[in-house]
Amino acid sequence: MLRPSSDRLNYGNLLIPPPEFRADFALGTTYSLDLEALVGLPLALFLSEEMNKSLLNNPIVALEGLRRSAERFAILCEGGQIKVPQNQNAVFSLLEDSVFEVVLPNNCSFHPKIWLIRYQDERKQPFYRLLVLSRNLTFDRSWDMAVCMEGRLAEEAGYEAAAKQNMPLMAFLEYLRVRVKNRKKRDQISKMLEELKKVRFETNDPHYSDFSFHPLGIPGHTKQPDELFDTYKDLLIISPFLSKGMIERFKKLALSNSTCTLITRRTEIAKLSQELLEAFDVYAMKEMVVEGEEGLSGDDLNDEAYQSQDIHAKFYARSKYSQHSFFVGSANCSESAFSGNVEFMLQLRYRKHGFRIQHLLDDLFGKDEKDNPFEQIKELPEVETPDTTTADLLEKAIKQLCRTRPKASVTKEGQLYRVIIEFTEIPEDMDLMIASITGKQLVKLEPVTILPLLLLEQLSEFYQVTARKEETTVRRIIKIKTTGIPEERDKAVFRSIIRDRDTFMKYVAFLLSDNLLLSSLEQMDAERLVNGKRNVSWLQAPVLYENMLKTVARDPERLKEIERVIKLIDDQEIIPEDFNELYQIFRQAAKKVKR
């Protein structure tokens, strides 16, 4: 059930539509967000491709995924927790109408991690998939957990039961809906809400006898799950972050001769007392596992470093005689998680003869100690980890900027554009700089900040903020409501990528391909130099003619995608005249095939 060495889920595969269905609309939540990871989502949702690195690094693929998905997904995240992209790309601006920051009062955090996706078949019949995760939408390598549930419209006799079970989920969606500042996407969420009154979700496993949704921190749902905080005989807690008070609370709920196991990060153990360390069997990931992968560091975009991995799952398993419940989701074992933050948890009731919590531990730890990724900690660390670091203070300052609800405006000056940003309050005791999303030409952040002149394609509601104090630097992207961005900005972004005839023809080849990954790799091969000259043989007319002929015969509707791209670019210098003539011939042929 929980075997880290073998039972792995693929984030992208969880999003890909089932056979005979296509994604209609997807609503997601995350605490921290990586825009580069977000670009991969349309590949899975709307192009049915894995979030393959070769695809993600191809700007044409990213552009096409975002073009097709522009009105069909929304994601909400914590204000001030958007990561700065490592690779600067104008395409990120096309995400601004799909990303919505949430800022909460009293330093509480927006922390849920779910996806609710509506698919539909050719008859427009809906099919729902709900993903409840502990994972943020980033490239973090830490160990997380996810549960996938699927639902269809119930028979009319089951509407009442479906509505009752889905009520907490619907309350959570309504909370999200009002925070999505895009009318069309709010309408899509309203459509989901109406259908959820009739959708019956299934676990597809007979051992899970029942389930409950537990949103936390939203109006009408501030109460903690009763069963989680009931007395227990056996308990397993997996949580990367802790508060001492919450662990003490669970200790008091233990019945006599109970077993209590806690798996957490090594740095969090210093928060416990020796008494708690003796009351729980406490485990942390072995150092050799934590340091086992190489990657790019999180905030320093220039230096390569080892990116550690650690436990990041939030999981609670409790048993009381023959009653077993698992809680999976976003809530850490901390006071803030259950008393202030917005979180989302799924409770699964488990029934299997002879089941014990120890069976989960056997899966996690393995049969051989040398293969166990965890080690038991029996003594408190000698030096406590400080509660706050300079990086924490800088991150908090950026979040505070979001809470002041800044605004920006754009005016045209010649062929360039001036951006003026206004802040009502600026944190002190640190250096704060701001720039466009590119991060170039940083300027000091002031109550009224004027950015250097920008090109049209550089305009965006995403801005890069840099906070420095002493030797520590934190960079984040924040979204600022910006008026005056010209409507043709999106076309300018498009043209900045499809900037010449060769690139346009690559795009066409990509649109006509049956296998996007193969097409992407073929285009890379075509870029190789042959005798000092670029090899563009794949652009030759016979290949293009053959691909368009296949498209007319098999899927004439796909030609409409080429027409939409032609209208977006609308530039005779980029679109070859002979291609336009060829396209019109096949367009007429497609009409005859359709008849």
Quick recap:
This protein has 595 residues and is α+β, with helices and mostly antiparallel strands. It is globular and about 80 Å long.
Q: How does this structure look, described?
A:
There is one protein chain. It is built from 18 helices and 29 strands. Helix 8 (274-279) links the parallel strand 12 and strand 13 (281-285). Helix 2 packs across helix 4 (59-69), helix 14 (501-512) packs antiparallel against helix 15 and helix 16 runs parallel beside helix 18. The model is unreliable at 294-305, 528-532 and 534-539 (pLDDT under 50).
Query: What is the CA-based Rg, rounded?
Result: 26 Å
Binned strand content? 25-35%
- Uncertain runs: 294-305, 528-532, 534-539
Q: Helical content, roughly?
A: 25-40%
Q: What structural class do you assign from the helix and strand content?
A: alpha+beta
Task: Describe the global form.
Answer: globular
Strand order of the largest sheet: 10-18-17-16-11-12-13-19
Mean pLDDT: 87
* Count of DSSP H/I helices: 18
Give the terminus-to-terminus CA distance: 53 Å
The description of the largest β-sheet is: 8 strands, mixed
Q: Total strand count, please?
A: 29
Protein topology:
Elements: H1 11-15, E1 22-29, E2 33-34, H2 35-46, H3 53-56, H4 59-69, E3 73-78, E4 82-83, E5 99-102, E6 114-120, E7 126-133, E8 146-153, H5 159-177, H6 183-196, E9 199-202, E10 208-216, E11 232-238, H7 244-252, E12 254-264, H8 274-279, E13 281-285, H9 287-290, E14 295-296, E15 304-305, E16 315-320, E17 323-329, H10 335-338, E18 343-350, H11 357-365, E19 374-376, H12 390-403, E20 407-413, E21 416-422, E22 431-436, E23 443-444, E24 448-450, E25 462-469, E26 472-479, E27 481-483, H13 489-497, H14 501-512, H15 516-526, E28 529-530, E29 533-534, H16 541-554, H17 559-569, H18 577-594
Parallel strand pairs: 1-3, 2-4, 3-5, 11-12, 12-13, 20-27
Antiparallel strand pairs: 1-6, 6-7, 7-8, 8-9, 10-18, 11-16, 13-19, 14-15, 16-17, 17-18, 20-21, 21-24, 22-23, 22-25, 25-26, 28-29
Helix pairs in contact: 2-4, 5-6, 14-15, 16-18
